Amino acid sequence: MNFTKIFKPSYLNLFLINFIKTSAEFDSNHIFVEENLNEDFSKEKFQKYVKRNIEECTKNCMKNVNIKLNFMDMIVNRKLDEKAAAYCHLFCLKNLGLSNIKRNGRWAFFPIVGFSEFVSSLFAFLGLVLNIYIYHFRLSRLIKFSPLSFSIKLHYHVLNAAFFTSFMYHFNYNSFTRNADYSTALFSILVYTINSIKRIFLLYKINNVFSRNIMYGGIVIFVIYYNYMTFINFNAILNKLVIFFMVLVSNVCYIIIYFKKKNISNNDNKIMIRNLLTFSFLKYVSILFEVTDFPPVFYIIDSHALWHLGLFLSIGPYHGFQCKEIEILIKN
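That's the Post-GPI attachment to proteins factor 3 sequence above. Prediction below.
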């Protein structure tokens, strides 16, 4: 069985067929042609074979496809074989009429202006911009009055790092951007969780050695944990359990704050509670989208992109909650 390259790949061609149900037809419109078929090896059998072996299809495509690196690829240090593999994976899926199938744990996406996952990158970038804007124009003037000023500043900077690395990761997937995205995302969840615990200490006026040093202890634990997971033995189940535990703890803390504050009738408190409920709701919806892990619609927007959208929308009410929290402390 020989495969011959018969046309130069076009992303415009892929974009157009995103909206059209296609099937595998071995003619001049496709990247593969069939030569010297034996009588007992029909086109139908070959089509079934390729459907069962999408990776084989991708490999054969990569041997024949003519793809070059452009300026955007050079900026993000994208490798030629990575670009060809992503193209061929998408091409085979569309031309064989298959539903989206993961390759190396990742869905096939249609690349837009050089981005591997344009929508996720877009929402991550917008989250970065909004986080910086709200912090500097609203929160920064109040933060010096908060007992949690160090923790809030740390979370702000960690969030910026998480948004930026996520933007780069979805721009171009490689080992560096993957590790950077994982570390900053994990650390941002940790700091968020510790801040929720410190808010409980503040609510009940607990001031001891543990409450004052919990953040430093968390940072030490994070460094040990991250190095173990990255350089010694990455355990996916353990990682999910750790993240689940942190999310659970933070949720419990904010539920306690809600029930403690919900009956206070002054306007500032009502606004604070409304913001708490809003960012909590958006967080839950985002998590729901993330765990569903549905494939990208039209090869453009998937569940993870909606996770980033939820995070982006939650930034405003989250900072609004923090601002009102500090204003209430100042007035009291």
